[in-house]
Amino acid sequence: MIEVNEVYKKYVGNNFYSVNGIEFQAESGSILGLLGHNGAGKSTTMKMLATLYFPDKGSILINGMSTGASKYKIRKILGVVYEEPRLYDQLTGEENILFHTSLWGLNKKNVLSRLKDLYKELEVDFEKQYVKNYSKGMKQKFSLIRALITDPQLLLLDEPTTGLDIVSRNQIRNYIKRLKASGITIIMTSHIAEDIEALCDRIVILSKGTIIENSTVNNLKSKYSSESFEEAYVKVQKKIGDYGGITE
Questions:
Q1: Choosing a second label site near 49 at 20 to 30 A (CA), which of 4, 152, 187, 246?
Q2: Which Pfam family, any one, appears in the UniProt record (predicted)?
Q3: Contact at 8 Å (CB) between 94 and 128?
């Protein structure tokens, strides 16, 4: 599904590489966790996967398509959820979705039918309320709905459960598991160790633009003689002299 091949990306205006020759793959229907301290290169990598940035060197292929040459085709199979929900406060949740899908030229009747299913899946009963009155958990659910309304094959999740209460976090985590079971490929960043351990098939840990580890959760725990992923991650950071602030 995803092939990242010796990718380099410089910071704008200088010669420092924020991403420095990284390589990894993600299989269809899997969840890959992209981790690292602030400034490690996660955000730049996610923006390149989303076709907002393009590699200075190397290539990123999604379903065999280059992000540079085929960005518009890739965007049709892509959904993105940002850490900070980007919704219009003066519209209701449903109006936000209808506005978004109108820009894509989607049929309103089909969208409303799809919305009913998503409301049920995510336990949403506040779609007619104005977004300005939403909690962060409510906003995050609608950000996820907006990303899924086009039935994407690839979903990029940037800190999808950060700042949520326990109930909302569990709901979204369980729904992510169901998305994986449906065959959607997911790339996610998170600072919550419990979510990573519960969700990710594979972990890529970045530091200063390079990949430090590319492995499974269980293999990392074994390699670093750790009972939990959080413990293993802290040992990785200590080994390289960085602490990424991952939390339970």
A1: 246
A2: ABC_tran
A3: yes
What is the 3-class SS of 66-124, one letter each residue? ECCCCHHHHHCCEEEECCCCCCCCCCEHHHHHHHHHHHHCCCHHHHHHHHHHHHHHHCC
CA distance 3 to 28: 11
Give the largest CA-CA distance in the chain: 55
Tokens of 245: 């602030």
- The string of pLDDT tens digits covering residues 42-66 is 999 999 999 999 999 999 999 999 9
Cross-strand pairs, 8? 20, 57
**What is the Cα–Cα distance from 144 to 85, expressed in whole angstroms?**
9
| Nearest-angstrom CA–CA distance, 224 and 95 | 49
Q: Sketch out the chain's domains with CATH numbers.
A: 2-240 (3.40.50.300)
